[in-house]
Amino acid sequence: MPELRQAVGWGRRDCDFPALFERCNFWAGVQDGQGKLVGFGYVAGMGLQHGYMEDIIVHPDYQGQGIGKRLVKRLLDEAESYGLEIITLTFEAKNADFYEACGFQVGLGGVWSKG
User: Fold this and answer.
1) Residues 6+ apart with CB under 8 A from 6
2) Predicted structure pTM score
3) 74 and 80 in contact (C-beta within 8 Å)?
4) Residue 44 CB coordination number (10 Å)
5) Count of alpha carbons within 13 Å of 4, Cβ hemisphere only?
6) Less Cβ crowding at N or C end of the chain, within 10 Å?
């Protein structure tokens, strides 16, 4: 995961792993033919009605091939089978069209970030 985060220009956050896998409700990943992780995303929450989708990441060399949409669809299918009725996420404005194409309704929200 840290290598994939780094490839898209995010901080590696090595300290987040493996705790992330223990704390999220479920996750999905995509590997290339050599077993290298090229796509990843997860849903976290309390496991009740609402979940939060995070870190939909696709390696730059594999973007534009539908991997991101397949990841989101797989996570939404899992959310439905898990009993979640609401999935929210945050994203940069430049990615709004992608998430709308995945079935999300873009609305107002806010993000607090330390620093």
Assistant:
1) 12
2) 0.87
3) no
4) 16
5) 20
6) C
